[in-house]
């Protein structure tokens, strides 16, 4: 039996989030997890850190506590220079675009039937295999994962419609996984926040 040592909620996709003492868990995951995201206004589509790496240098927190069935609360985003901007500020898109050096807009979750909102934007490469490697974080010498384990929406949409999740509603890591990464990469600083897990479990 493991012990949960960290609970993380990430109000905005690919940004740093909030460490919680407790959280409500529903079928869709942690309440309030990844309910905001940035849309690429150059190529279209909701984008995460795989496409816009600078998102990992931003942090987000809720201004009001989210609920399972209520509207998505506004968030406050901390920019790399330490300044903050609210999601309902008139200049939020301008400031995010400047911080990311890329034209983006900030969006709360949209209804699941708004398929165009969730559809993938234009690929960064005309090479389909290269695009797949980018999606799944594979180098040229690494095999592709077993596609049968992924929901079919993964290829057509940036996230399952109605969510800003990559594929599944909960990300769980163990202390052993982190320890193994540190052993394999002794010169790297392995920070649990980089992986944005919802739960970190100490399995002994």
Please tell me about this protein's structure:
- This protein is an alpha+beta fold and 204 residues long.
- The chain has one domain.
- 20% of the residues lie in helices and 22% in strands.
- The protein contains six helices and twelve strands.
- It has helices spanning 92-100, 115-118, 128-136, 153-156, 175-184, 192-195, and strands spanning 3-9, 18-20, 25-26, 29-30, 36-40, 46-47, 59-62, 75-78, 84-86, 104-108, 172-174, 199-202.
- Strands 2-1-12-11 form a four-stranded mixed sheet.
- β5 (36-40) and β6 form a beta hairpin.
- The protein is globular, with a radius of gyration of 17 Å.
Could you outline the blueprint of secondary structure elements for this entry?
Elements: E1 3-9, E2 18-20, E3 25-26, E4 29-30, E5 36-40, E6 46-47, E7 59-62, E8 75-78, E9 84-86, H1 92-100, E10 104-108, H2 115-118, H3 128-136, H4 153-156, E11 172-174, H5 175-184, H6 192-195, E12 199-202
Parallel strand pairs: 11-12
Antiparallel strand pairs: 1-2, 1-12, 3-4, 5-6, 5-10, 7-8, 8-9
- Main beta-sheet annotation: 4 strands, mixed
Question: Largest sheet, order of strands side by side?
Answer: 2-1-12-11
| Count of all domains | 1
**Beta-strand share of residues:** 15-25%
Tally the helices: what do you get? 6
Termini distance? 9 Å
Shape, principal axes of CA atoms: globular
| Low-pLDDT stretches | none
Helix fraction, binned, reads 10-25%
Radius of gyration using CA atoms only = 17 Å
Mean pLDDT: 92
- Judged by helices, strands and strand pairing, the structural class is alpha+beta
Helix and strand string, N-terminal first? EEEEEEEEEHEHHHEHHE
Number of strands: 12
